[in-house]
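FIELD: query
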Amino acid sequence: MRKSEIGSSIDWVFPTLRRPVFFWNIASSITVAAVGIFAKIFIRWFNKPKIHNVHYLHRALQRPSHIPLLTVSNHHSCFDDPGLWASLDWSTFCSRRKMRWTLAAHDICFTKTFHSYFFMLGKCIPIIRGRGVYQEAVNFVIQDIMPQGEWLHIFPEGKVNMTKEELRFKWGIGRIIYESPVIPIIVPMWHIGMDQILHNEPPYYLRTNKRVTFNFGNPIDLRQAVAKLREANVKPKEARKKITDLIQKELYALKTETEELHAKFTSS
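FIELD: result
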């Protein structure tokens, strides 16, 4: 495939992700481990992280193999992923199976040949912002990621939120949860300070000696809510909105808690 074709279309990505060959899995394992280890070393050794309640995520990572995991968080910096996973243990980075999939903006991560392959090897799925919930990336998650009991991370704000205002979450997360053959374990997380490590304005380089707070919330159990929506046979649009609103409420409650924790951390 020519470079111009890769830059203008992502249709070729999904067959590649659906049917990885043996050497692809090896290259992907190396990519995931290398990026994860770098992020852990940089956050843990060159900055000052404070991590709260990470046991919620560690416990979820020990789930039965048929149950998917969905983590959701705010998005304040382009270094959020992989920086957030500095909270994981070393063994998780070395397991491609255990590590997360994530949705990545196609117009940022999939514009050049090298970038496209790098992010694909890093378990990133190209999402086209503005195309809605019925696009191939969301279909891929529902049809291929959730049924295999894998881990998906989503930034439901849909972009790097540089103003840090409370944005309405994108309804794609509602569709994923509602249509998933098995309702995932949903672990919310909020972080503060990542945009001080990598600024959203030039010059773009990683800073050191910054204080950053990670806070993981109690898993959100939506099984009963989803069951009621299905029994009531509500319209898909309404179901997506109700589920997304529940996620948004829980995540913004975690935001308030994390702001208090970060204020204590920075004043100490």
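FIELD: remark
The two ends are 55 Å apart (CA to CA).
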